[in-house]
From TrEMBL:
Protein family membership: Belongs to the creatininase superfamily.
Protein name: Creatinine amidohydrolase
Organism per entry: Prauserella sediminis
Annotated SUPFAM superfamilies: Creatininase
Keyword Metal-binding: yes
Length: 246
């Protein structure tokens, strides 16, 4: 998890289960039902998350946060999640699929351009490796006069991938897909200390099991608290950006 401009502060908002807000999902709507709304696009990845978490962890968390946003802020519609990103640093671990930074940037630009019927687009990013493409896409879209926001959840520097943070979130969201019996610590140094080695040889160069952090102590209760706190920060950022107020 890395932060790419999340808003500060905590919004109040509703606390009902976002999975029940089917009316806020673009993919389940017919075109006459789509009004002049803010489009939230969950941006994930399909990549290894250690031996204990599913490959779609980032996508699952981003999609959940977008649904929680729609439950807090009026007139937000959630697009189908983008399940592929820039995950080249995880190459070598079976199951990882990556479209790379240039292709991802192009995809995001074209998605932003095609969303002319919406009042704006919020990219909810669940994978730190997408940040370079996302920043470039947002910069270009804004230069074209489009109303675009990028946001990502933040996390501890020594728990950036498949550690306690993401394991807790997935224990709340998809407990049956978390394999706690094989969960183990990987590289536990803060991410800035690992960056040179990561750029040179990928995640495998610093962590044999693909984990950057330690999943020990993860719990579904902690996962819910994290998701709610992230969603409050996201909602606050979107209210400020879109003019909904606090």
């Amino acid at each position: 998890m890395t932060d790419s401009g999340s808003g500060s502060g905590s919004g109040s908002g509703s606390r009902h289960d976002p999975d029940h807000d089917a009316g806020a999902e673009l993919g389940r709507s017919a075109w006459p039902e789509v009004g002049e709304s803010v489009l939230a696009v969950p941006l994930g990845a399909t990549e290894q998350h250690g031996p204990h978490l599913p490959l779609d962890t980032d996508t699952t968390i981003a999609a959940d946060l977008a649904r929680r946003l729609a439950a807090r802020v009026p007139d937000v519609v959630v697009a189908p999640a983008v399940p592929y990103g820039a995950s080249g640093e995880h190459a070598g671990f079976p199951g990882t699929l990556s479209i790379g930074t240039p292709a991802l940037e192009h995809l995001l630009v074209e998605l932003g351009r095609s969303a002319d019927g919406f009042r704006g687009v919020v990219f909810v990013n669940g994978h730190g490796g997408n940040t370079e493409a996302l920043r470039a896409a947002v910069r270009l879209l804004r230069e074209e006069g489009r109303h675009v926001l990028a946001w990502a959840p933040s996390g501890p520097a020594d728990d950036s991938h498949a550690g306690r943070t993401e394991t807790s979130a997935m224990l709340h969201l998809r407990p049956d897909d978390v394999r706690l019996h094989v969960a183990a610590a990987g590289a536990t140094a803060p991410l800035p200390e690992l960056l040179d080695a990561l750029r040179e040889g990928g995640v495998g160069a610093v962590s044999a099991n693909g984990v950057l952090g330690d999943p020990a102590g993860a719990s579904a209760a902690d996962g819910l608290r994290l998701l709610e706190a992230w969603a409050d920060h996201l909602a606050s950022a979107v209210r400020t950006w879109s003019g909904h107020g606090s």
